[in-house]
Write a structure and sequence with these properties.
about 140 residues; mainly alpha; two-stranded antiparallel ribbon; 2 strands; DUF2231_TM; Membrane protein; transmembrane helix; membrane; transmembrane
Length: about 140
């Protein structure tokens, strides 16, 4: 008689604070992209100011999400995916800081580089959020 045993390993889910910070990072970078587009369409300087503040908030959320990601890296089930997630957060933080410096310039001087960086950061934040939330689930190991 042959017996088979199934072991269910439950992956440790995403920390709720980490999830909120990831979602905040994506939404704030998206808002900055939309504000940059509104500035490009209307040349109202207030939209550039909105984008600057949204980028500053996104950098705060991104930095805290990076800290949560580094802490979560030690207990990660899939270390490669967790490392990619942390690396994406680090790259988005560095590019976000450069984008904040671009937005600190004159409103006329920040275009189109500010908009392009905001689009790149929105995509990076979306990918980092996707990878962060897809690291949850149940893995069944059959013997």
């Amino acid at each position: 008689m042959t017996t088979t045993a199934e072991h269910t390993y439950r992956r440790r889910g995403l920390n709720p604070l980490h999830g909120v910070l990831l979602a905040g990072t994506f939404v704030l970078f998206l808002g900055a992209t939309l504000s940059d587009y509104a500035y490009l369409s209307s040349y109202e300087i207030q939209w550039a100011t909105f984008a600057s503040w949204l980028i500053a908030g996104a950098l705060v959320c991104n930095g805290l999400a990076f800290a949560c990601g580094v802490i979560g890296l030690f207990g990660a089930f899939d270390r490669r995916r967790a490392f990619i997630h942390v690396a994406l957060l680090l790259v988005s933080f560095v590019l976000g800081f450069i984008n904040a410096l671009m937005h600190a310039m004159d409103a006329w001087a920040m275009m189109p580089t500010g908009l392009i960086l905001s689009i790149i950061l929105t995509v990076l934040a979306l990918v980092a959020t996707w990878i962060g939330f897809s690291n949850t689930g149940v893995k069944v190991k059959k013997q």
